[in-house]
Design a protein that fits this description.
It comes from Luteimonas endophytica. This protein has helices spanning 3-13, 39-51, 62-66, 71-84, 100-113, 127-134, 153-156, 170-182, 197-207, 224-231, 245-248, 256-274; strands at 18-22, 57-60, 91-96, 118-121, 140-146, 159-160, 168-169, 188-192, 212-215, 239-243. The protein is an alpha/beta fold. The radius of gyration is 18 Å and the shape is globular. Residues 21, 23, 61, 93, 147-148, 191, 193, 215-216, 218-220, 242-245 line the site of the ligand O=c1ccn([C@@H]2O[C@H](COP(=O)(O)O)[C@@H](O)[C@H]2O)c(=O)[nH]1.
Length: 275
């Protein structure tokens, strides 16, 4: 089964649209990890095991591992998810994008080296730059559309006319381009931030039931109820609502794993109340 099938099955079986983001910051780890040379792996593994029952996905963010020289921990962590929690897909948040000859290596990095089920990608270089990802039909390609950060509007809201079309913001043009032209293998999803509920509603209207990865609840303050109300698909799914810091660092004490489990489950319940 490919990423999309696994994701849809997990939405149903776990009754969950929650994604836990894995963004290790050793300075925020509980004291018991202080002298552990493999702290990044051990901390993240405990988070994964504690929250697995509440999630539809895990989303490790590659810079948090690479900056620490912990790429090996990332590879072992993804292998652990596959081995211990089969049926929960892993989205590698790497936001890759480059000319085709280099993008091929980024695709191999995400899917073959790290064994991710999906990867986030930056569409700025155009269709050919995403081809090495899109042609991996069993893998998900999660394309930045309207990001959660305050500066998202700087470029993503610029008015464009497309191919003779009337003017509209770039992120809407991108959403339509992905839905109509790039999703031939049915393996595309879009990133739209929880901090922009109105834009979520507009993107959903353009892309039908295409999955949306929605970061920005929790630490960034996005409104869960507005996200679900505006962006769920016709069958009440369609969303991968991602929270990292609010789950990972729910407690800095010895109860960190139990606190993370409660935070993930609380998010699952809040989403389900709204759909
Ligand atoms: O538009 C985007 C795209 C990606 N992210 C990533 O998601 C998490 C958010 O972390 P929180 O702690 O839940 O705020 C982080 O890895 C970002 O790189 C995003 O926030 N917005």
């Amino acid at each position: 089964m490919g990423f999309m099938q696994v994701l849809r099955r997990r939405w149903k079986d776990a009754a969950s649209l929650v994604c836990v983001g894995l963004d290790p910051e050793p300075a925020r780890f509980p004291a018991k990890f202080r002298d552990d040379p493999d702290a990044v792996f051990h901390f993240c593994r405990e988070i994964v095991d504690a929250t697995a029952q509440s999630v539809c996905c895990f989303k490790p963010q590659i810079a948090h591992f690479a900056a620490l020289g912990a790429e090996d921990a990332l590879a072992r962590l993804i292998a652990h998810v596959h081995d211990a929690h089969p049926g929960i897909p892993v989205i590698l948040d790497a936001k890759r994008g480059d000319i085709g000859s280099t993008a091929r290596h980024y695709a191999a990095e995400a899917f073959d080296r790290y064994r991710a089920d999906a990867v986030t990608a930056n569409p700025y270089l155009g269709a050919d730059s995403l081809q090495p990802f899109l042609e991996r039909a069993d893998k998900g390609v999660v394309i930045l559309c309207r990001t959660s950060n305050p500066g998202a509007a700087d470029l993503q809201d610029l008015m464009v006319s497309g191919n003779g079309g009337s003017g509209r913001p770039l992120y809407q043009h991108l959403a339509e381009t992905v839905a109509r032209e790039w999703n031939g293998n049915g393996n595309c999803a879009l990133v739209v931030g929880a901090t922009w509920p109105e834009q979520l509603r507009e993107v959903r209207a353009i892309v039908g039931d295409m999955p949306l990865l929605v970061p920005g609840v929790g630490a960034q303050g996005g409104d869960v109820e507005a996200v679900v109300r505006n962006a769920k698909s016709a069958d009440g799914t369609g969303l991968v609502v991602s929270s990292s810091r609010a789950v990972l660092y729910a407690s800095g004490g010895d109860d960190f794993a139990a606190a993370a489990a409660a935070a993930a489950e609380g998010l699952r319940e809040a989403i389900n109340r709204a759909r």
